[in-house]
Amino acid sequence: MTQLPSRTRQLSAVFRVLSLVSVGGFALFALLVVFALVTKSALGFVALEHRDETGVLATALLAAFALIGAAATIAALWYTARLFGIYAKGEPLSVEAADTLRLIAFALLAKAGLAILSPIYTSLVLSIDALPGARSLTVSLDMGQLGLLLAAGLIYTVGVVMRQAVDIAAENRGFV
């Protein structure tokens, strides 16, 4: 197995810790946002335009969607921390590293999909209790969402190619 330089392993260990702290911080923030939705309080940082008009069903659906989005972000951060841990051990070209890259890609793909669906879902949910004629549908797509989809595809491809390279290297070692 190829060993990483000591400096790279040390930086990977630091980034692993930062990723894990981000997981905890983001989980806490997500719970606060859901709490704000459920209690219909702004908490000083959550701007809910229709806070007083949203019914119980709409609030529950918005909270559920927020939790799903948070789960995708937390998964991406968690797998990133795992990858940095693998690098900190000095094992960059391993099956575990390749598979972890693919898991990061799946989490980012889920996050991108949710980001694309979010304005549509939110407008539909906020229109649940609206009177006929007052309902709306919002559809939008921006370059950031497309960029995230492209990045997820790129990371997935790198993971697949890395896994194939590890398999070929193992096969070549068998011939020697």
UniProtKB/TrEMBL annotation:
Pfam families: DUF2975 (PF11188)
Transmembrane segments: 12-37, 57-80, 101-126, 146-166
Alphabetized UniProt keyword annotations: Membrane, Transmembrane, Transmembrane helix
Name the record gives this protein: DUF2975 domain-containing protein
Source organism per UniProt: Actibacterium mucosum KCTC 23349
